[in-house]
Amino acid sequence: MTARINPSILSADFVNFERDFQSIASADLIHVDVMDGHFVPNITMGPPIIKMIRKCTKLLFDVHLMISPVEKYIKDFANAGSDIITIHPEATDNLKRAIKSIKSSGKKAGVSLNPKTPISAVMDVINEIDLILIMSVNPGFAGQSFMNEVLLKVKELRKLINERKLKIDISIDGGINFETAPLAVKAGVNILVSGTTIFAGGSLKENIFKLKNCA
Q: Which of 7, 58, 182, 186 lies 20 to 30 Å (CA to CA) from residue 174?
């Protein structure tokens, strides 16, 4: 399985977004982390910023909402230029309704599972979503170490998706580098979110190429 590369712009140079977007043009899509300082202990960006940086690239925006209550803001992020909107089960009291709101906005819907969140949290909506994002670190900050134990969750999900013949991507985010990427792909991941490894230095295009080929 060849994985798609999804650079996380949380690790990009916020002063030079347009330059960095040009440098990662060979990626498959772009991961945008949205944090509110409440659901997770960090604050990043909101719809106005996403609307502005949307002009810098034609790549799909995979927007990961780590905010609560999430339903209140789904329409705003959809209108700002998101293509995929991923939410956490813990950020809403009605996951089905939140997924329906994403879909009614014409966007693809994803559900993110934290390291301690069980697969059962997504089972009620598994026929309605397009993506499952496995967090391989605790969400909130870039540069954390990969948690190998989440690979068991990936394997279970890949088996379930294949058995049911569902068209759901499995993405993984957290500590993805040249060593952990092959492990994730072998377990069943087909989208690799990586920030620190891609933006750490050198040629961003070369880093993307290396990450895709090592997996």
A: 58
- Is the Cβ–Cβ distance between 195 and 10 less than 8 Å? yes
Q: Please, what's the largest Cα pairwise distance for the chain? A: 46
Residues 44-88: tens digit of each pLDDT: 999 999 999 999 999 999 999 999 999 999 999 999 999 999 999
Active site residue ranges: 33, 173
Is the CA virtual torsion 53, 54, 58, 60 positive or negative? positive
Ramachandran region, residue 68 (left: φ > 0; alpha: ψ -120 to 50; beta: rest): beta
**How close are the terminal C-alpha atoms of the chain, in Å?**
9
Distance CA 87, CA 114 (A): 11
- 3-state DSSP helix/strand/coil % of the chain, to nearest 5: 45, 20, 35
What is d(CA 193, CA 211) in angstroms, rounded to the nearest whole number? 10
- Nearest to residue 135, comparing CAs of 122, 120, 116? 116
